[in-house]
Structure formats: C-alpha cells, structure tokens
UniProtKB/TrEMBL annotation, chain A:
The keyword Transmembrane helix does not apply. The lineage of its organism: Eukaryota, Metazoa, Chordata, Craniata, Vertebrata. Residues 1-334 form the WD repeat-containing protein 54 beta-propeller domain. Keywords: Cell membrane, Cytoplasm, Fertilization, Membrane, Repeat, Ubl conjugation, WD repeat. Signal peptide: none annotated. This is WD repeat domain 54. SUPFAM superfamilies: WD40 repeat-like. The keyword Cell membrane applies. GO terms for biological process: negative regulation of receptor internalization; regulation of epidermal growth factor receptor signaling pathway; regulation of MAPK cascade; single fertilization. Plays a role in the adhesion and fusion of the sperm-oocyte membrane through its interactions with IZUMO1 and IZUMO1R/JUNO. When cross-linked to form dimers and trimers, it has a regulatory effect on ERK signaling pathway activity in response to EGF stimulation. Colocalizes with the EGF receptor in WDR54-specific vesicle where it sustains the internalization and controls the degradation of the EGF receptor after EGF stimulation. One of its GO terms (molecular function) is protein homodimerization activity. InterPro entries: WD40/YVTN_repeat-like_dom_sf (IPR015943), WD40_repeat_dom_sf (IPR036322), WD40_rpt (IPR001680), WDR54_beta_prop (IPR049546). Homodimer and homotrimer; forms tight forms of dimers and trimers. Interacts with IZUMO1 and IZUMO1R/JUNO.
UniProtKB/TrEMBL annotation, chain B:
InterPro entries: OSCP1 (IPR019332). It holds the Pfam family Oscp1. This is Protein OSCP1. PANTHER family: OXIDORED-NITRO DOMAIN-CONTAINING PROTEIN, PROTEIN OSCP1. The lineage of its organism: Eukaryota, Metazoa, Chordata, Craniata, Vertebrata. One of its GO terms (cellular component) is plasma membrane. It comes from Mustela putorius furo (European domestic ferret). The gene is OSCP1. It comes from the Eukaryota.
C-alpha cells in the first residue's frame, strides 16, 4: 500500500515528454534533487525528506539560430565515478553542468548537416557508464563523451551507429562481474533496442528488433533489458542474446517512463493511461529465467503521467510528474 | 518538436471554428442563405490551394498569438463581423476542443482520424458547392499522402508537439463541464475504462517464456482500470467509418457555446515568457503571417452585400461584460506591429493588409502607413 505525500510545487508545468523526471538521491545530506522539463526551461529543485522544497533553479536551452526559443527534451543527472554532472538536451544541442546546475562545463551543438527539411533536430536519451556519458540524437546516432574526473575537458570520443530513427532513451548498469557482456542499452522510435559493451571503443552486442511501436523508455538490471513500449507493453529480454523472457500487458496507453531500484530488483512503469505500476523482478533458481511479479498499481486520476522515478534505493517511495501539472506528486509505502 | 504539425493543428482548429460559427449563426437566426454564404466563403478561403501549399511546408509551430491572427482573418473572410470579445471566446473554444481531442486520442495516429472527422463534417457544410468540395477532397488527398505512411514514432512526436502547444490552457467550457469530460478545475477527465486503442492488449497479463520462445506461464494481475478490446479500427480512406467520435460536431441548437473565464492558468511565469517575446521572434512571426495569409485569397464582397455582426454570447451586454472582465493573462493581444517601420520592412504583410477592406468604415485618404496601422488596431 502506498499513500500520497505532500506534493512539491513547480514553477512551471511538466512538458508532455517521456522520461520527464530525473531524481538524484543524496542520502548523506538527507536531500533529494528533482529535475523536470517545462518547455524552453527546466527546473531543478532540492527537497528535504518530507518534501519541503529547499532550493530551486531554472535552466534554459542555449539559444541559437532559429525561430522560437529552443525546447528542452530531457534533463538528467549522471553519476560518474568521481563527479556528478547534470545533462540537458534540447533542439540545439547538449549542455552539461555541475550537479547543482550552477556552472555549465560543456556545450555541444548538434550538427544538422544535410538534414531533410522535414526532420526536427534534437538530442534525447541520457545515461552514464563508467567515465562515459552517452547521449542519443534525432538521427539515431548515439554520442559518447569521455568525462575527466574534474574540469571542463570533455571530449566526444565516439559516435555509435546502430539506430535508423530517433533515439528515445538509454540505460546502463555497472558491469556485473568480469565476464559481463553488456552494460548499455539504447532504444529508439521504431522500438529497436541496441545492446552495447562500453569501453574505449563501444561494441555492439546484439540488436532486439521493434515492430514499429516506439520504445520510449528502457532499463537494464542484472543482464536483463526491461523495455516499455508505445502500445503499453513491458518486455524483458536477455541482454546478451536478445531472447524474450517476459511480456507484460502492463498499460492501456503508451508507456512514458521506467525506473529501477536495482538493489531490490523493483521496476516502476508509468504511462499515459494515468497508472503507475511497480513490479518485482527476480531470477528463478531452477530455470535461471527472469520472472516478474506485480506488486502495486497506483492511479493518478486525470493525469497523463510523463515522468516517474523511485526516490530511495529500496524502492519504497516514488515521485511522478504529469502533463500540465505544476507539481511533483510523491508516494511512499506504508 | 515535429515540423509536420501545422496542417493538423490548423485544419482541426478550423473545423471546430466552423462547428461553433454554424451553431451561432442558427442560434442568432441569421437567414439561411447568408449563413451558407459565410460558411462557404470561410471554407473556400481555408482550403485555397496556395494557402494549403504554405501550410503544408515543414515548419515549427508558431505562438498561439500568431495563429489566432490567422483565424481572425479567416473568420472575417466573408460578410460576417466579430467583436474582439466574441473572437476571443471563439478561439478559446476552438483551442480547448482540439486540446481535448488530442489528449483523448487512443493512439497518436488517431489525430489523423480526428482530422478526417472534421473534414467529413466540412464537406457536409458545402454539399452544394462542387468547386469547394473539390478543394476539400484535394486536401484530404494531401493529408493521406503526407501522413498516411508516417510511423507510430512520428505520430508520437506530432502528438507531443500539439500538447506542448496547448500546455497550461485550462479554460472551462460549459458543454465539457456538463458532459463531465472536464473537471471544475479545468482539467480534462481521462477515463480508465472502455476500449483500449487498436493494437493494444487489455492490460492484466504477464506471460513468461522459455529460452526456446515457448510460453511457460501466464499470470494475471489486477490492473486497476476496466478496459475491453477495441471493436474495430477507424478508416483512413476518403470515405469510411472513422469509429472515433472525437472531432465530430458536439454542438447543436440545444447545446449552446459558453465558457467560464475564471478557470485561468496559475502558471503566470510561463505565460509572461510568451507575452514579452523578444523582437526577433515577433519579426519571424510577421514573416510567417505574411507567408500564410499571402496564400489566403479573401473574396472581396461583390456589390452592396450588407454585412452583419455575429455574437458568441447570448446578449450584447454579455459580450461587453466579457470584454471588460477578461483576465489579463488570457488576453490574446493580437501581434503588436508597433512601428510603421516594421510594416514597411515587411512589405509583403503590408500588401496583404492593404487588400483587407473593412466594408463598414469609409476609407480615409490619410497616408497609407496610418491606414494600415489603423486597420491593424481594428483587428
């Protein structure tokens, strides 16, 4: 059972984008940071455990040549071995800040090159693995940035080709043991998933085809890919082989966000059907297969959810954003 | 985000505008031949080939202000006049109706069915004008050509772009409140029951597979909603059962059009950002207007056809009252072309504005610049 906690007010409503909530847990300081995209601006705020907002900051997409103020597509904290960076993607490029958003340490302008005039140019999909930050783009290219332990000497180290349509989301997990085969998964608008092994040069491990249905959100847990689709399905695959293990008819509308509480194997799925579901993933001792159990379903009435994240490592609390909603809703288990 | 959104936005908003005007023309007892002329003139202007060409060019969506200026001109494409308050109300109703339709579309692709519903109804308005009917059918073909082959991912982007356009709009509409599709706080009701979208499975099942791909186990879980399978898919053909009711005419003689202005958006921060747009933005919007309206062939009234004023409210006093009490943050403030300089710089827009004749007021023989400014203020 979950109960609603006090919501945290936002300066601007959440934009109807997928994965529109980033959470950075800072248990040592008893703080939680939240990041939400409004449109041409994104809001960062930090809150104490009871949800009392403490500090807030607004970031804007860097202007460039163009007609209207550029829209931000995503904001996400990247936890690296020696530092935490906040990454902001927009229709102009990629901005990286110190974790509190106070200083921009890096700017990468997107190369629109010989784009067909019908194509919108943007970056979307942010995740970190080891010392790298991966960011997806409208063309399907995934940019890999090499991040130094400190300072602004960030370098674009590689451009991964694997997708033919716009990247939607990227998920990573720390290498599971010496013989780990895959630690990065990228997803796109056609539902295609690419599984990679990170390193000085990334290696494509396998591709899991989509069926034309977009995959807006993806997670990676213990070698299992969890993918949420535009038709409301959640599917779990073996990352190294692409074998389908579980298929869940989870939602009645497009899924907009997935999150993981990796220590306990809990998966959160949120969709435009106003529902948030929590699932327990486990490995069956006999078959070695991934299994799923439904734990909890929460309806957020009349709200087209656009972002959802666990707020603590045990997955006992989560936060939700919705289109047109100017507050972050919070739930915690009783 | 998507550069393919404008035609869908324009045609659906235009469709809603026609539904509302049709209802008000009948409610105000405007003679049938005059009413028919108004609708014919507006529809013929909307579907003009040159205008459609401009519309279908890949481009970003402009602000609500810029778009409103286009509809203002469209609404005045005939012998009918609307006061500012009525025009404001008309635009409010149009935007809230289409926002509702986009939000409730089961699949992102269904926005095309909503558009077809509007076009089907528009064809009904001009049944006795084969020339205009031809224009509408050509547009239908254009839509099919441009959107028929788009992927689900592209439609998801279009849907997001439309919702971003409508973000923070919470005007309460009487007919929505009565039908319980809108809450008293201005938010739309999102039902958790009924048919799932075509291609989606009813939620509630977990299927576990073996390594060989065989289904090993099936487990049900309680989803929380009350969904059933979709009966059939709507038709994307020129003629066909769309199945979807969104985009069909919800107004009738017994269901008048009303709005409550007190449901204003609380997010003033986001609103002010839009109103104090920097100059370069205003210039781009002027160019957009020039391009788009340049394609509009407004028929000049042939002969002494007396115009009339349409009122979106039930009485003139109500209309006046509405104009006085409209909340600041909801004022549409038509694009403020501040200096004659701006107009001169944009010769194209000046030329178009010059073509616009106000049949009621006599033409002044003052300088051309002043004339144009005066006409802009009259908008």
């Amino acid at each position: 059972m979950f109960r609603r906690e006090r919501p945290i007010p936002l300066r601007g409503s959440a934009a109807p984008l997928c994965n529109n909530l980033s959470v950075l847990q800072v248990p040592s300081r008893n703080l939680t940071h939240f990041g939400v995209v409004h449109g041409p601006s994104a809001q960062l705020l930090s809150a104490a455990p009871e949800g009392v907002p403490l500090a807030q900051r607004q970031l804007h997409a860097k202007e460039g040549a163009g007609v209207s103020p550029p829209l931000i597509t995503q904001v996400h904290w990247c936890v690296l071995p020696f530092r935490v960076l906040l990454v902001l993607t927009s229709h102009r490029g990629i901005q990286m800040y110190e974790s509190d958003g106070s200083v921009m340490v890096y700017w990468h302008a997107l190369d629109s090159g010989d784009v067909s005039p019908v194509q919108a140019v943007f970056a979307r999909g942010i995740a970190s693995i080891g010392r790298f930050i991966c960011v997806g783009t409208w063309s399907g290219r995934v940019l890999v940035f090499d991040i130094p332990a400190k300072g602004p000497n960030i370098v674009l180290s590689e451009e991964l080709a694997g997708h033919q349509t716009s990247v939607t989301d990227i998920a990573t997990e720390p290498a599971q043991g010496q013989d780990c085969v895959a630690d990065v998964v990228t997803a796109d608008n056609s539902g295609l998933l690419c599984v990679w092994r990170s390193g000085p040069k990334f290696k494509l491990v396998t591709q899991i085809p989509g069926f034309g249905v977009p995959c807006p959100s993806v997670q990676l847990w213990h070698g299992t890919v969890a993918a949420g689709y535009g038709d409301g399905q959640v599917r779990l695959y073996e990352a190294s082989t692409g074998t389908l293990h579980v298929q869940i008819s989870a939602h009645a509308r497009a899924i907009c966000a997935l999150d993981l509480a990796p220590e306990v194997g809990k998966l959160l799925s949120a969709a435009e059907d106003t529902f948030v579901h929590i699932w327990k993933l486990s490995r069956s001792p006999e078959s070695g297969h991934t299994e799923v159990e439904h734990c909890h379903g929460e309806c957020v009435p009349d709200t087209q959810v656009c972002g959802a994240r666990f707020c603590d490592p045990s997955g006992s609390s989560f936060a939700v954003t919705g289109y047109d909603l100017a507050e972050i809703l919070r739930f915690s288990s009783v | 985000m998507s550069l393919r959104t404008l035609p869908l936005l324009f045609l659906n908003l235009g469709g809603e505008m026609l539904y509302i005007l049709d209802q008000r023309l009948r409610a105000q007892n405007i003679p049938a031949d005059k009413a028919r002329k108004v609708l014919n003139d507006i529809i013929s202007t909307m579907f003009n080939r040159k205008f459609m060409e401009e519309l279908f060019k890949p481009q970003e969506l402009y602000s609500k202000k810029a778009l409103r200026t286009v509809y203002d001109r469209l609404a005045h494409a005939s012998i009918m006049r609307l006061n500012q308050a009525s025009m404001d109300k008309l635009y409010d109703l149009m935007t809230m109706a289409f926002k509702y339709q986009v939000l409730l579309c089961p699949r992102p692709k269904d926005v095309l069915l909503v558009t077809f519903n509007h076009l089907d109804a528009i064809k009904g308005f001009i049944q006795d004008s084969p020339a205009i009917l031809q224009q509408v059918e050509e547009t239908f073909q254009q839509l099919t050509d441009r959107y028929g082959g788009l992927s689900d991912g592209e439609f998801q982007l279009i849907r997001q772009t439309l919702l971003i356009f409508f973000q923070d709009l919470h005007i309460r509409v009487s007919i929505f409140l009565k039908d319980k599709v809108q809450n008293s706080n201005g938010r739309f009701v999102l039902p958790v029951s009924g048919p799932v979208p075509w291609g989606t499975e009813v939620p509630g099942l977990i299927r576990i597979f073996t390594d060989k791909g065989k289904e090993a186990k099936k487990v049900e879980f309680k989803h929380g909603g009350h969904y059933v399978t979709a009966p059939k898919e709507g038709s994307f053909e020129l003629y066909g059962d769309r199945v979807l009711k969104l985009g069909t005419n919800m107004y009738s003689m017994n269901r008048p059009v009303e709005t409550h202005m007190s449901g204003a958006s609380k997010n003033l921060a986001s609103r002010t950002q839009e109103i104090i747009a920097p100059n370069p933005l205003a210039k781009e919007e002027l160019n957009f207007l020039a391009r788009l309206m340049g394609g509009m062939e407004i028929k000049k009234p042939s002969g002494p056809e007396p115009g009339f004023r349409l009122n979106l409210f039930t009485t003139d006093e109500e209309e006046e009252q509405a104009a006085l009490t409209r909340p600041e943050e909801l004022s549409y403030e038509v694009i403020n072309i501040q200096a004659t300089q701006d107009l001169q710089r944009n010769k194209e827009l000046a030329r178009i504005m010059g073509e616009f004749e106000v049949t009621e007021q006599p033409k002044h023989s003052a300088s051309k610049g002043d004339d144009l400014l005066a006409m802009m203020d009259g908008f």
